[in-house]
Amino acid sequence: MSRRWRMAVTLTGLVFALSACAEPGEQKKVMRDDQQVLARAEEIVQQTLGAMSPKPTPKRDGRYGAGACLADPGRGDRQQVHISYRLEGVAGSAGRQLVRQVRDAWVERGYKFTSDTSDGDWSAPGTAVHMATVPDDYWMTISNSVTDRAAGDGTAVLTVTSPCYFPTSGGSSSPSP
Questions:
Q1: Closest by Cα among 173, 119, 166, 167 to 142
Q2: Angle CA 19–27–107, to nearest 5
Q3: 130, 41 in Cβ contact below 8 A?
Q4: Distance in angstroms (rounded) separating the CA atoms of residues 144 and 95
Q5: Are strands 57-68 and 166-167 parallel, antiparallel or unpaired?
Q6: Could you read off the pLDDT of 33-68 as tens digits, one per residue?
Q7: Which residues make Cβ contacts (< 8 Å) with residue 25, sequence separation at least 6?
Q8: Bigger pLDDT: 167 or 13?
Q9: Alpha carbon distance 159, 149 (integer Å)
C-alpha cells in the first residue's frame, strides 16, 4: 500500500474515532475495563471476518489496544481501544468485494451508517464503509485502497474503535503488537 493511501486510511479512521468520542455538552462517566473493551473490539473483527469469502488473513496494522481518547487531547483521563488489521491472503482485486460483503453483513446485524456518505462509493475502484454497532457504538471502517489501477488490485483494511471510556483498571493495558 502506498504511503499516501495508508495516510488517507489512517486519517479517515481518526476522523471517525474522534467523532465516536465526542459527547457534545457533557461527558458521561462510563467506566469500563480495558480488556473487556478490547475483547469486544476483537469480537467485532471476528464477526466481520466470518462474513468474508474468500477468507483473508488479518495482520495487525497500526495502533492496537487501549490508549488515550482521541477527543481528549492532553487530558488523558478517558481511553478508547483502537485496532486495525490489513486483510491479506486474497487477490488484491477481491478487496472491493470483501468491503461489499462486510457492508452487507453489518447491515444485516442492524449496525448503522455513521453519516449519509458512509456507505462506500461503489462506482469507485477503492471504497470505504463506515458504520457503528448498536447499541454499544463501536465505530468500524472497512476500506479498499487501489494499489494498481491497471490490474484493479488493492489492499483492504479493517478498523474498529471503541467509544471513549474511563478505565476501571486505572490505566492502559495495551497489548504489544
A1: 119
A2: 40
A3: no
A4: 6
A5: unpaired
A6: 889 999 999 999 999 999 999 899 999 998 899 888
A7: none
A8: 167
A9: 23
User: What are the phi and psi torsion angles at 167 (to 5°)?
Assistant: -70, 135
pLDDT band at residue 152 under the 50/70/90 scheme: low
Is the peptide bond prior to 175 cis by the omega test (within 30 degrees of 0)?
A: no
CB atoms within 10 A of CB 80: 27
Rounded CA-CA distance 143/132 in Å is 15
Query: What is d(CA 29, CA 168) in angstroms, rounded to the nearest whole number?
Result: 11
3-state helix, strand, coil in the chain (%, to 5): 30, 30, 40
For the chain, the residue count is: 177
Task: With CA atoms as reference, report the closest residue to 174 among 111, 101, 80.
Answer: 80
Cα distance between residue 129 and residue 119, in whole Å: 5
User: What is the tens place of the pLDDT at every residue in 96-108?
Assistant: 889 999 999 999 9
Q: CA angle, corner 157, sides to 44 and 164, nearest 5?
A: 50
Q: Could you tell me which residues are beta bridge partners of residue 79?
A: 68, 165
Given the DSSP bridges, would you call strands 153-161 and 139-148 parallel, antiparallel or unpaired?
antiparallel
